[in-house]
Each structure stands twice: as C-alpha cells, then as structure tokens.
C-alpha cells in the first residue's frame, strides 16, 4: 500500500482542523475510482457472491497521489478551489504534458447536460457492460416481475405487500406506522437513501420505482427497482385480493447482449458552451462496475446501513472516467514523448465497441 499511494492530502478549509480532517476515504467513491485506475490484481473478489472473479485496475503498476475535496456532506466548492492549485489546474497541467480525464456528468438523458467541455479535457461518458444484475418478485398469483438491484440478502418468501398510507417511503413518513415483516411498495422516484425508509420502519423488503432502468442500485434490505408500469401491475394484484403476498429473490447476474450502449444517466451533448467542439469525447464502462470500497462505508453509502464491504458495485460517469484515465496512462507508458493532445486523439479515434 505504501508503494502504491505516494501522496495523500485533504482539503477542508471551512474546518478548524483536528482529528476528523483526514484524507482517509469514508465514503467509498474515492477508493472505487482509484482502484479502477491502478488497483493491483486481487483474486476471488465479489460483493457477497456477485460479480465474482479477479479484479485489477487498468494500470496496476501505477502509483497514485490522492487529493480529497469531498466529505460526507458533499463537495464544497471552496475545497475544490483550494485543491486546484495543488493539481496545477487542467490547462496548466496540459501545458506540462499531463492528460486530464474527467467525468461527463450524471444528468442524462436531457440533451446538452455534458460537463467538463474544455477542449484540453477528456470528457468521459458512461456505457453499459455485457453483464446485468436482475432481481425479481413473484406475486401470490404466480406472476413474476423482473427488476434490477444489488440485493445480496437471502430470498424473502411470502411476505405481505403493503402500500404506504400517504404514498411516501420517506423515512419520517414510514416510521409513523409499523411495516414489520412486510414488503413496502414505494410509488415515487428518487427515494431518499434508496430503501432506508422501509429499513427504518422495520419492513422486511421493498419494491421501489427506479430513476434509471439500466442501473442496479445497492439496497439495505431485500428489494428491487421497477418501472412505473411494473409497479402498476403489482398494485393491480394487491387490489384484487385480501391477502397480497410476494417473494423477493436474491439478485442474479445475467448477460447483457446489447452492450455497450450509452447509460441512461450519462450526460449527453451537445456542448452548449462551444457547440463546434463535440463532447463527450469518449465512453467507457460505467454501469455496475465492481471495485475496491472503503470499509468505513456501507454498500449503500447510508449510515443506517450497518454493513461493511471491501468491494462494491457502482454506476456513474465517475466509474467510466478512471477506465479512460488508465488507458491514457497505458498509452503514455509506451509513448512518453506524446503530448496530451496526441494521447487524447489516439484514444478518441481508435476507441471501438
């Protein structure tokens, strides 16, 4: 570890300092992206049996200098600006032969939401891989609804299906009524800390409308993400019987023969600042990527989720970006005299599905 990470700094200029200010990753995001770039090969890696195999970074022999500007409360702009001087700044970095790879953003599918559009930056979009994680609920009438989630819990069999009294799965609303042992049906998108409300309410499981149909999110209890249409099917069954029950199975990996295609969340062009410069520049795997995770954070990232893991499955352009960073480093290792523009051009013009 000491030979891998050669530098680590933390920026929290609004804090007075102290023991709580540390470059140690407590959220998992930094460990995930860093190991995707430069993690050494580790065998028998999985998330509770999912995505099993050998994990290794794009350039396992590379070394890392890590600059932490994001904390549990998010990313303070003042911290980012403070770190920018240490990182030289992307334009000055380019002048000194450094390639800067950046995430295109997770605001898709609305057009024109791409970020990091400066011509000297690599703006990386996210695409799918040839694997999906699917989950299913079998209703009491025998009908099977297939959704997506990272549900590593044992099968939850024949639990009563319950609809929130006011239609909200927000923790403050659900905890007013007992849902112990039941599967809660959450009718709204963007549930705060996905599945945490049902967990805190003592529910045994949950069915939640997913914001993106191609993303499997980690859940803190047996649960799956479905579309509005699928939830309507479940509700039709609930309203047809006096004893609605369902069985939620554990997540399974399956082939995704359509890959690679753009992730639904990946911010697309056009570049609204300089329309004549096409952005994003390139895409890379950014859905359901397994990589290292901080044991100080749960798979869901919520403090109410008490699990601790060393590897986690995540989605986002943040997951795609380090793949391209690693590719750039790999090219640089063979062509040390190439400029950032030459390396960027080589990646953009030779990338293929």
UniProtKB/TrEMBL annotation:
Transmembrane segments: none
Keyword Hydrolase: yes
Domain Peptidase S8/S53: from-to ranges: 23-350
GO molecular function, one term: serine-type endopeptidase activity
CDD domains (UniProt xref): PA_subtilisin_like (cd02120)
Keyword terms of this UniProt record: Hydrolase, Protease, Serine protease, Signal
SUPFAM superfamilies named in the record: Subtilisin-like
Gene Ontology annotations of biological process type: proteolysis
InterPro entries according to UniProt: Peptidase_S8/S53_dom, Peptidase_S8/S53_dom_sf, Peptidase_S8_Ser-AS, Peptidase_S8_subtilisin-rel, SBT
Family according to the record: Belongs to the peptidase S8 family.
Record-given protein name: Peptidase S8/S53 domain-containing protein
Organism name: Oryza meyeriana var. granulata
